[in-house]
Amino acid sequence: MTLLTVQNLALDLPLRGGILSALNPKSRRSLQIFADVSFTLNPGETLGLVGESGSGKTTLARAILGLTPTTHGTIHFDQAQRSTPADFTAMRATTAMMFQDAIASLSPRMTIGALLAEPLTIHGQPAPKTKVAEMLALVGLPPDFANRYPHELSGGQARRVGVARALVLNPKLVIADEPTAGLDVSVQGEILNLMTDLKTRLNLSYLIISHNLAMVRHVSDRIAVMYLGRLVEIGPTRQTFARPLHPYSQSLIASEPLPDPRKRRQDLAIKGEIPSLLNRPKACVFQGRCPHVQPICRTDPPTLREISPARFVRCHFATPTGALS
Ligand SMILES: Nc1ncnc2c1ncn2[C@@H]1O[C@H](COP(=O)(O)OP(=O)(O)O)[C@@H](O)[C@H]1O
Ligand code: SF4
Ligand SMILES: [Mg+2]
What we know:
Largest sheet: 8 strands, mixed
Bound molecules: adenosine-5'-diphosphate, iron/sulfur cluster, magnesium ion
Mean pLDDT: 90
Shape: globular
Number of helices: 10
Distance between the termini: 35 Å
Strand content: 15-25%
């Protein structure tokens, strides 16, 4: 049984047009942020969502939590479909979003204690001091941190408070958006170890979003690769890194920095800039940068299909061996 099932999710945002669109509603244009997004997340699993900046990862995460409305598709969490605002409010009591700058973006005038108590009061639950102390201990911070203010914390301490705040409602799922971005490498490791440790202790599931492939590879059971608002590949982490099947995943993984730079596969490194969503190509979204592009890629959109057990790929020519047919 899955914890989260997302099916055919799409989001189109109306573009503010000029006078023409005001006079003629038919000429109103919209910007598709993402479309045809389908994936599942199992209890206790960590799914890593990777893709270049601007591919729609954060917006998708917000949509899954009902913080951004969607245009099509369904979201099931914990066996129940989530569609109304009340459904999503209930879901957010058991799903936490950990933003990159969670603590920095919160009110600088609230103490850490008040920040940790806030999710409880928002959801109408008691917020005793003992709970705040318990949450601080869980993330390895001393109890007197409850009286401190966000600006008094180091980057790593602030991130720990972010983890504590995400966990205060005892969630089943944590969606972590760029959880280690902006941290020194040693602190990144500390935060990942903390998250991994808490996952086992509290029986959590994670959706970890990042453009940092090495980090996602380290912590994820499966990975999903996003390109310009489409999931182009989903599969078990080890197999996907060993033998990526989609040309985009192949270039992304080939251009990942290796401990020995001489081993980097320059021949596969991705070429060209990521197009803007306004210029998303029709049919296959990767056609403009794909070394294997064929005429059909410009006319027929590929679907996400399972080409070998548990491995899904959105490309007309992908094969289970990783070679393009
Ligand atoms: N409400 C919105 N209005 C206009 N554009 C938006 C809105 N939300 C997201 N976008 C656009 O969607 C794209 C994807 O953004 P985002 O989800 O932040 O990507 P990522 O997290 O992968 O970097 C960006 O180009 C952003 O400008
Ligand atoms: S469908 Fe065509 S353009 Fe798209 S990734 Fe596959 S080969 Fe490349
Ligand atoms: Mg983002």
